[in-house]
Amino acid sequence: MAFGRSDMDLSLPVTLSHSLKHEIIMEEQKHHIVEYLTNIKIWIALAVLTILTVWVSEFDLAMLTVTVALTIATVKALLVLAYFMHLKFDSKILIIMVIVTMIIFLSMIIFTFFDYLYRR
Amino acid sequence: MSTNSQNTVEHHPAVHRDDTAKKLGMWLFLFTELILFGGLFLVYAIYRYLNPEDFSNGSHHLDVGIGALNTMILITSSLTVALSITAMQKNKPKLAIGLILFTIFCALLFMINKYFEWGHKIHYDLYPGTELFKALSPGEGLFYVLYYFMTGLHMLHVVVGAILLGIMANYIRKGMITHDNYVLLENGGLYWHLVDLIWIYLFPLLYLIH
Amino acid sequence: MTTTTLPNYLEDKQGKKGLMVWLTTHDHKRIGLMYLAALTIFFIVGVFIGILMRLELFNPGKDIVDPQTYNSLFTLHGVIMIFLFVIPGIPAVFGNIALPLIIGARDVAFPKLNLFSWYLYMFGAMLALGTLLVGDGPPDTGWTFYAPYSVKTGTNVTMAVFAAFILGFSSILTGLNFIVTIHRMRCPGMSWFKMPLFAWALYATSWIQLLATPVVGITLLMIAVERMLGIGLFDPALGGDPVLYQHLFWIYSHPAVYIMILPGMGVISEIIPTFSQRRIFGYKAIAYSSLAIAFIGYFVWGHHMFTSGMSGPARVIFSILTFLVAIPSAIKVFNWLATMYNGSIDMKPPMLYAMGFIFLFLIGGLTGLVNGALAADIHIHDTYFVVGHFHYVMFGGTGFAFFAAMHYWFPKIWGKMYNIKHATRAFWVLFTGFNILYFPMLVVGIMGMPRRYYDYLPQFHLPNQISTVGSWITVIGLVYMIVVLIQGMRKGEKAERNPWHGLTLDWQTDSPPTLENFEEIPTVNEGPYEYK
To answer: For residue C4, how many other CB atoms are within 10 A of its CB?
Structure first.
């Protein structure tokens, strides 16, 4: 029998399959529930931030335009990640993996800019 | 395991289930999607840096209203898919299915908006290959190329996500997703939230930075 | 352990017949063997193309092919060897076969996805080889597909990049599978730091497969779209920059070389302690160094672009980081040697290939540093010095590690043993031929001979002739090695369960294993190399 797989279909004598078949869940699944209201509050926050980012874009912030826009976007993204995608309530390992992925992605951009920023 | 006299194998019938593994697998796949789009974001960043005015001009030609509307549509669709998981956890499969169908409806609205948005530009000959396009300054041409490429690739993911959610709704209907076995729905939701996340960055970068 | 009357995995056909036993399997061992069968064929095709190239280079001027054909030859040689052999190589074959065994699991986390990865691999391979047969001929851009030529050339570039895209997907899914497997399916008692080092190597490799491959995926998609729609992303006339293509390409392709070498190092880390009958020296250092190489490896790609027009600061940063990434590799080499010191060395073929690896990888690694030095690189970029360097690391390194793994796990896979004497001789022929083939390249590269050139100046003639002769000896060695192994498969003597007296879990179960690997999932309570 395969640990960790509920999709393995080994042939069983038919007479035995009903009486003996049972499921073992690998661990106590922490059934953390994000309540309806919590989700709706997050949605409200996201809507407000969307309105905010559109409103801010009306002003000429010169050098800061990109920074402000990306900051607001990142706050929205963090809300989606933490609550809708349940990261806040999941294993810490997932959070570390998300962070490592973002570090690597951002480094790709930063290191490429080392080229373009300093070209004569 | 034991063998009987006919030397056939009788396996213990316990079926082990590992929801954490399935969820981890889905997150890992999401990382690849992030980096896939990330390559386009990198190209966008470099070319914006090299052509600030042209990108700003290009951005002015996009309709902030439609963009903002689409953002709200996707955010709402993320809400409803998150709510569907809560519903499933509280053993309300019919509500869950309803919420998923609403999510898919949001996806359709998004697609219709995109259709009009692209259609408008194509109607005015503003796409790669036309005389008008060739007459654009290079930076502005790049902006539109990236606009089509990034929103197009995103659109593809909207379609895939909607199909996945449709399949999940069907699984609930067939009892393959239940109130204590719903990791597949969570995974479908995760994919959908990724689609939302990408748009959360696409919207300001394409529509709002000018 | 009690002996069992259960069939082994090769005999256990699960009610299926003929090819369907293989094509619909979920068993990681069969999937690994399917990769092996396909890979061997592609490797042979790649070697054959290499032989043709070396024949053409025997003399200056035309020998057997015209220049256009020569360009396609080196392109396909690179595409086949890199995407169909070296990158998938050890993870797809030995990762699949051995990873569940060494961590005490019955299979990988997602067996069906594993089979799907194989089908993607085959589909991508068919597309890649199909470029030889259809349309306007095989690509002639070099395996790197640099813009602007890759956008303009009439050859089958679009098909080739789609092939690479599909193959990339296969690589990503394999990496995903292994990460989840290692996180979730280690047997009871096997904490992270009781895991064999091959598993650590595969773990680090899988993270590179997962996070780097999508970049080349989107980049190749850009090339395809640019060819089809003329969008101008890399065309200066339309505002684009061809150097940006190089950045995007190498952001993947440099980490890709660590996908190639890390699993090989993992194999060596298994073989050295077993054939020295000593605990590995510096287990944690080796484990961490795998992660360090994977991580730092993301930040050195610019060393492929020193002469491309990148800014000065960028060049300096990339060069420094390139030197930094050599350190963890050096740590491994020192630790392997320290493990062997005072050990009871058994010079069986796996150990020969492992020691061959250390010697050849050392040359490859050191020549890598020469390439990484900014001033030196001006002279040797795009010369045969680079060609010599990467063959030493990719073939002398990963290739020899692959052969080492073949000889190491052979009795586990087939339950038989090959002829040790002939395997040993084959090794020496191969090792000798290899150095005669590639060392002259280092010399002629410094003398100034450019790579990817159909023709060359008369002063480069002798080293080229020596190298070509070396290619013939290498091929003889390869053929000898393969024949020995096939004979072992067909007629080898029955092997005992643990012929190398290894302590890892793969050697504590039957040779060949049953379908489910272990009668009962083992529990471990000590590290994997506690030789007494």
So the answer is: 13
Tokens 């053409």 found at: C56
**Interface contact flag, B43 C244, Cβ < 8 Å:** yes
Residue with tokens 């997703």: B177
Closest CA to C336 of C305, C312, C357, C311: C357
Backbone angles phi, psi at B136, to 5 degrees: -65, 155
Spatial distance between the Cα atoms of C516 and C510, rounded to a whole number of angstroms: 11
Residues 6+ apart with CB under 8 A from C431: C356, C477
pTM over 0.90: yes
- Residue pair C239/B139 in contact (Cβ under 8 Å)? The answer is yes
Structure tokens at C462: 């002798």
Ordered domains of chain C (ranges, CATH): 19-508 (1.20.210.10)
Q: Give the start-end residues of each E strand in C198-258.
A: none
- C-alpha C118/C-alpha C96 separation (Å) is 11
- pLDDT, chain B, mean: 90
CB < 8 Å & 24+ apart, contacts of B148-154: B148/B118, B149/B40, B149/C222, B149/C225, B149/C231, B150/B37, B150/B40, B150/B44, B150/B202, B150/B206, B151/B114, B151/B118, B151/B202, B151/B206, B153/B36, B153/B37, B153/B40, B154/B37, B154/B195, B154/B198, B154/B199, B154/B202
Q: What is the DSSP letter of B10?
A: E
- Asked if C302 lies within 8 A of A1 by C-beta distance, the reply is no
Distance CA C296, CA C405 (A): 26
> Which residues of chain B does C233 touch, with a Cβ-Cβ cutoff of 8 Å?
43, 142, 145
ipTM of this complex: 0.94
In this prediction, residue A14 carries a pLDDT of 37
Topology of B19-208 in CATH? Four Helix Bundle (Hemerythrin (Met), subunit A) (1.20.120)
pLDDT band of residue C4 (cuts 50, 70, 90) is low
Q: How far is CA B5 from CA B8, B10, B15, C6, in A?
A: 8, 11, 25, 12
The partner residue sitting opposite C311, judged by closest CB among A7, A101, A118, is A118
Q: Write out pLDDT tens, residues C5-18.
A: 789 999 888 888 88
The values of phi and psi at residue C519, to 5°, are -65, -45
Q: Which amino acid type is present at position C509?
A: T
Q: Does A25 touch chain C (CB under 8 A)?
A: no
CA–CA dist C166, C168 (Å, integer) = 5
| Class of residue C24 by CB neighbours under 10 A (exposed 0-12, middle 13-18, buried 19+) | exposed
Cis geometry, peptide bond prior to residue C148 (ω within 30 degrees of 0) = yes
Q: Are C55 and C77 in contact (CB under 8 A)?
A: no
- Residues 25..44 of B with a Cβ closer than 8 Å to A: which? 27-28, 31, 34-35, 38, 41-42
The distance of C138 to chain A (nearest Cα, Å) reads 31
Both tokens assigned to A3? 């640990």
Give the amino acid at C291: L
pLDDT for res C135: 82
Coil vs helix vs strand at C144: coil
